[in-house]
Every structure is written in structure tokens, then in C-alpha cells.
Amino acid sequence: MAKSQWSFQTATDLSAALAAKKVSAVELARDAIARIERHDAKINAICVRDFERGLQAAKEADAALARGENKALLGIPLTVKESYNIAGLPTTWGIPQQKNYVPGEDALSVSRVKDAGGVILGKTNVPLGLGDWQSYNEIYGTTNNPWDLGRTPGGSSGGSAAALAVGYGPLSLGSDIGGSLRVPAFHCGVYAHKPTYALVPSRGHTPPPFPPLPLDRDLAVIGPMARCAADLSLLLDVMAGPDPLEAGKAYRLELPAPRHAVLKDFRVILIDTDPVMPTDSVVRGGIDRLAADLGKAGVKIEQHSDLLPDFAASTGLYMRMLMSFLGASMPPEIYAGACVAAQAIPAGDTSLGAERLRGIAMSHRDWVIADGARARLRAQWRELFRQYDAVICPIMPTPAYKHDHSQDQETRRIHIDGMPHVYPDQLAWPGIATLPGLPSTAIPTGLSPDGLPVGVQIVGPWLEDRTPIKLAELIEREFGGFKPPPMFDD
Hints:
36% of the residues lie in helices and 14% in strands. By secondary structure, it is of the alpha/beta class.
């Protein structure tokens, strides 16, 4: 069965086709299901199928369309990261002990997607505890990159990115604390948006078996993934808005309009590498080509600014605060061992690995001091965004690498222009937006000489999510965007 004309269309285009009665929601659902059944033995992106309920939702969407109803996602097939609760389906986070955990209610974002008419076809694969840029676990196995099956699709939203790239629906829901939306988008050649911190309430995106209560999860966000930039706005608007259980704490839904509507009006800082985490020649080359294109389009570009926060200092702070958060859920014996190791670190050791260990052992007093440093960092970013509209920078230092499932990530190595680097040090580039809680849009910009996707992230001002998404739209319109991977363009 060949691909249909709908397989790789955007959600925006599909909505228009549905409204014009050129296609039905059931046809779209069946097309996506057929692609899953045809291709997913090779990719393993969809770890939990929900076809029967998905087809029923599609039939209900067709009935609603016939009545003249108009909802944001009405009849659109999509997928959801396994870590979101969906009533009646397992939520495991890849943890073997939780393989039989089945929540009784949907995550808040899932409820909103359903209320908007979205047709959920299944859940997408993740790494153990969402803690890797590779997506594999003992319950569901390994997800492969659609551009090269021997390589990672990224993580932890790797299943979602792979599903989008192969045509299993135009939208997916993901999450991000260490690049888990942006990294898989980068490795699979699709789009993702890390929202401003706390813009999208995360109730129901909860490690099992914990109840889905409103909870502040420092640094962590949930957000949209898509095959085009405009669809990010479509899904973000459905997901965002106050949680009714804590409305007094949530940010307003009406985000400011984008700062500009045409490319030449944007003022951008563009970064292609840094000694803290160098990028390889392929990534630098892609960014430099984008810089040349933007310059020709009239974008005001600078590659240096005294207003940029010190990358080394902010990266070290991010490592400590991230690992302080993640360390709280470590098994007692692992936490205790890390604390002992942290005490033995020389005071002069400022390597990122040392900062991660210090973070695990951080006292509450030290965390409060670190949080004060983060407040000062946010003030620096606010000052920068008085003069600039966005910062364009790397997401990861290399294109997708080969699967490496060795247990200790600190002993893994990636190779940047032939030189080995510590695997978790890659956190540096996602952290540039995560630590201050800024919005960041991941976009594809082309392919490496080896035929692997490359791209960038566009970091925008606090609560001005529409600005980086708009810039992403304009770049896509001017220079192109998603392309289907050749192995699955059928």
C-alpha cells in the first residue's frame, strides 16, 4: 500500500481538508494506522497501540464535522508520549516494575487534546525513567532513527519524533528537562517547542505509580511536536492554560503576539559552538549556512554580544540544579554513593561531571543559593531580549549517533570531529534555555553529508513563545523544513 496524499501533510492542512470534506477523519486515522502497521516493525516508535478507540474517536469527529462543529484538532490523528497518563493504557516510563500500571484518568493535556477533537492512536516509546537521549527500555525495546536504523532517534521523546518523521500523524505530545523535546526533533528532522516554564500544566505527566496531582517539577516542561512550525502553535494553544486545580499559580493563556511578522525585522544572536561543549563541523556548517541565508534575507545577525550570559557558569549551575532535582528520585544506595563521591571532588574541579555529582549531593541551603543565581541569570536574559528577539544556537553537538546502551552514561563517549567527549556533557546546549525557563523552538535546517538531519533551537524571551515559533515559521517558509526520510517516503 503506497502512501496517501495525506500521510505527510500538516495538521493545519488536514484541518482545512476535513472542513472542505475532501477527506474524513476515519480515512486519516486509517491511513496513519496503516503506516504504523507497515513500518513500525523497523522503527518501534509506537509502544502502545490504541487503534480501536482511535477509530471510534475519528467516527465521532466525522459526526461533529457533519454538524458543523469547529474545534482546533477535530479529526486530526496524533500520538502521545508514553509518559502521559491515558486512561486504560499503561504508563510505565519504561520502568519494568511499573509495566502493569494503568491510570484511571487522562493527563490534563490529554483531556484537552480529546476535548479539542484530537484522535489519539497510541503512545510513543521512551527511555528508562525518561533519562536518556536514546529511547529504549526492557518493556518495549529500542526505537530506531528513521534516517538510519542503527542510530538513536533521540530521547526522551524519541518515539514521538520518529512517529512524526514516518507519518504516523502530524502531531505528538512530548516533554523536556534535558532537551527531551528538542533533541529528538533535531535527530529526526522534525519540529518541537519547549514552552516557557509552567506555561503548560503537567498534571498527569507523572512517574508511576504516583497520583496525578499538581506538582512543581523544577525545570521540567511538557510541549508540542510537529512536522511544521505553525502546527506547534496549534497544539500549544490546546495544551496551555491554567490548571483548574491551581489557577492562582498558572500563567495567562493569552501570550503576547510575536514581536515581528517578517524575517528582516528580527534581531538575532547566532552561536555555532562554545569551548564548554564544542560542536562538530557538520553542525557548525549547518548553522553557518543558516546565518548566511538569514543575512541575505535581511535579518540583523550578531555572533557575539556582551549581553550573553557566561555559558560556562550557567552550564555548571544547570548541571547542579538538574541533578539536585533528579537525585531526589534516585534509589537510596545510589544517592548515598553519589554523595560520598561528591565529597571527594577537589574544590578546583569545575568539570561538568563534577558539577553533576555536586548537584546530587546539594543541600537545601545550597539549592536556595543556586536558585538566587538562577534569578540573576533570568535578569541577564531579560536585558538581552531588550536588544535582541532571539538566540539561535545548537541543540546537540553532533547529528544522531549509533545506539549505545552501555549502562553508565558517564562512561559513554560521543566523538566531535574525532575527539571523545563525555556523553552527559551534551546537556550543555539544551540547558541554555532550560535553566532560565525560556521558550525554545527546535527546527530542522537540512541534512549532513551522511544524510542525517541537522537543525537549531531558537530561544526566545520569557512568556513570548510566539516569537521563536514565528521566526521558525518564517525560516521554514523561506528556506524549507521537514523532509520525509527516504526509507519511509512511501
